[in-house]
Design brief:
The protein has helices at 15-23, 53-72, 140-150, 258-266, 287-307, 331-334, 369-382, 391-412, 461-481, 500-514, 521-536, 541-552; strands at residues 35-40, 76-83, 91-99, 102-113, 119-126, 153-155, 162-168, 171-182, 188-194, 200-205, 208-209, 214-220, 226-234, 237-239, 250-253, 278-279, 283-284, 320-323, 345-349, 352-355, 425-426, 438-439, 483-484, 491-492. The protein is of the alpha+beta class. Among the domains are: 140-205, Nuclear Transport Factor 2, Chain: A, CATH 3.10.450; 207-383, Elastase, domain 1. The strands form five sheets. Strands 1, 2, 3, 4, 5, 6, 7, 8, 9 and 10 form a ten-stranded mixed beta sheet that branches. A five-stranded mixed beta sheet has the order 11-19-20-18-15, covered by helices on one side. A hairpin with a 2-residue loop joins strand 7 and strand 8 (171-182). Helix 8 (391-412) runs antiparallel to helix 10. It starts with 14 loop residues before the first helix and ends with a helix.
Length: 556
């Protein structure tokens, strides 16, 4: 049987040094051990032995040739090529790893090239030495039934059952998989079953949570802020359909009907035009609807204005935003059955997002501009890097949503403490205490790690995705605000709040165009620095700030 071609771990340091460096950072929760491809044309790490430019170029050429050979052999398949609007001429090619035509879960490579075809960087995760038969015994139809039973629900709307090679528990398993909405708790689970035996082999919770005819409407948001809504007039009523911005993003009001909301998100019934939130005078009295609809529009504008992105899939896919999926007074009786409809918000996939109505100690989750932007950013991730919602890649997924959520808040709200104000907290407006869910400036205040040495190893929360995300959050904060890290004692010269867009654009570029689905923190370091270098040049303030921030939190 033909085996995958050998792949060399490559970075901008010497090959042997790179191999030692990376072997010390085993990807938590992943087995068999993947090979990480990290290759750039520039030495970008402070405090690390750098190769000469000519050696870096040679190493990049070597790994580039390996990617090309694998692509020609069919072991890497080109999936998409995106034109980078921020770095003229740059293109990002995304490849999926294949074994005899079957996708390898978590295996993908992103290669950046210039318009002339010169390779600038390569980032990837590839699983070596796969040698299994790819002929399933279980049919796709039977697999869908078995997966649905295992996931205690049914496949999510528009989800496909796909055959995968799953690297897990020290071996490769031919597996069928799809995303299932559970009828037990409403969570979306990605479930894998053995394609030979039909037994469940792996699952993880893929509910990516928090914890013309137009007229401009107005409303009072949950946080007490005055908001503007783009509404569609239909006869004597106004509907929460944004027809000013592309995509017709729509807010639906389920009026506390938790069973119907669950049926919609489970795929048992379709969302209907009659579910669209409406008002008779365009002065919206429902604060949850007002906040949801207005904040979604601001988030769209942020991604469009600052990153040239057209909606979550970059092609203006409609957002279907669900407000009032339950009633707060039903928390005691329904909170256990529908937890996501109370003290949480969740991105379900394909543009569906639901915002919980709150619980004791929590306001409606639509109260936070950063919370709404956080959930929408999960959609951006899903249609770009697809960061797997588990372990290190899951923590990076959560952090990207946090970083963009805070960025949107800084863009549209005035700085200060209190409701509807921009500050370095995530989700502060939905917490009655005002403490927030995560603290960028001081993660330890909420019990979260701010340094790689205290990365939390746990099986809970998909490997601590909502906890370990704070390490990257702190990098973002330090790169902008600067400061001295409490543990490492290392000083970071941030770009300053007025220049925060430099860091936001570097992070956005790395997380959407450069990182593979199974990215690690080390890979995120190199990718964000490389993105800043591509945008602003070697030795620039953003490059220096990101290098210092990553050093400060101990990620090499």
């Amino acid at each position: 049987m033909k085996r995958s071609a050998a792949i060399t771990i490559t970075t901008f340091a010497a090959v042997t040094a790179a191999a030692v460096m990376l072997s010390d950072r085993t990807a938590r929760g992943q087995a068999p051990s993947p090979t990480y491809l990290i290759a750039t044309s520039q030495p970008t790490a402070v405090g690390r032995t750098s190769a000469t430019p000519s050696a870096s170029t040679l190493q990049l050429r070597n790994v580039d040739e390996q990617v090309t050979r694998l692509a020609l052999a069919g072991e890497l398949r080109a999936e998409a090529t995106d034109v980078d609007t921020r770095a003229p001429g740059a293109r990002h090619e995304r490849f999926s790893q294949r074994h005899r035509g079957v996708r390898v879960f978590g295996g993908d490579v992103v290669r950046q090239r210039t318009a002339s075809g010169l390779t600038v960087s390569v980032f990837g995760v590839v699983y070596p030495d796969i040698d299994i038969d790819t002929t399933p015994v279980i049919s796709e139809a039977d697999a869908t039934v078995l997966i649905s039973r295992a996931g205690t629900g049914r496949p999510f709307v528009e989800a496909d059952t796909e055959l995968w090679v799953l690297p897990r528990d020290g071996r490769y398993t031919l597996s069928w998989s799809t995303r299932v909405v559970s009828e037990v708790d409403g969570h979306v689970n990605r479930v894998f079953i053995d394609a030979i035996t039909g037994n469940e082999v792996f699952r993880y919770d893929d509910t990516q949570t928090q914890v013309a005819n137009d007229t401009v409407g107005r409303g009072l948001g949950v946080a007490g802020d005055g908001v503007k809504l783009s509404a569609q007039r239909s006869g004597d009523i106004f509907r929460a359909v944004d027809i000013v911005l592309p995509g017709l993003n729509t807010t639906y009001d389920l009026k506390g009907n938790a069973a119907r909301a669950d049926d919609i998100l489970d795929g048992r019934t379709s969302i209907a035009d009659s579910d669209i939130a409406q008002d008779d005078d365009n002065n919206w009295g429902d604060s949850a609807v007002a906040s949801t609809h207005a904040y979604a529009s601001l988030t769209y504008l942020y991604f469009a204005d600052k990153h040239n992105r057209r909606g979550i899939n970059n092609n203006n896919l409609k957002l279907r935003l669900i407000a009032n999926p339950a009633r707060l007074q039903d928390f005691a009786t329904l909170g256990g059955q529908y937890p996501l409809f109370f003290a949480n918000a969740a991105y379900y996939g394909n543009g569906y997002i639901a915002f919980g109505v709150g619980s004791p100690g929590n306001r409606n989750f639509a109260a936070g501009l950063d919370v709404v932007a956080h959930e929408i950013t999960h959609g951006v991730t899903g249609f770009s890097s697809g960061l797997i919602y588990q372990g290190q890649s899951g923590a990076l997924n959560e952090s990207f949503s946090d970083m963009m959520g805070v960025a949107v808040e800084w863009e549209y709200q005035q700085q200060g403490a209190g409701l509807a104000r921009a500050e370095w907290l995530q989700g502060e407006d939905i917490r009655v205490s005002g403490n927030g869910l995560r603290n960028f400036a001081n993660p330890q205040q909420l019990g979260h790690p701010d340094h790689w040495s205290i990365f939390v190893n746990t099986t809970a929360d998909n490997g601590g995705v909502h906890t370990n995300s704070s390490i990257m959050n702190h990098v973002f904060y330090l790169a902008i605000q600067g400061g001295t890290h409490r543990l490492s004692g290392q000083r970071v010269d941030g770009v300053g709040l007025a220049n925060r867009l430099q860091i936001e654009r570097a992070v956005y570029r790395a997380f959407t165009s450069m990182l593979p689905a199974g990215a690690t923190f080390s890979m995120a370091r190199v990718a964000t620095v490389q993105a800043a270098l591509d945008l602003y040049g070697n030795g620039s303030a953003p490059v220096r700030a990101l290098e210092q921030a990553w050093n400060a939190v101990g990620v090499q």
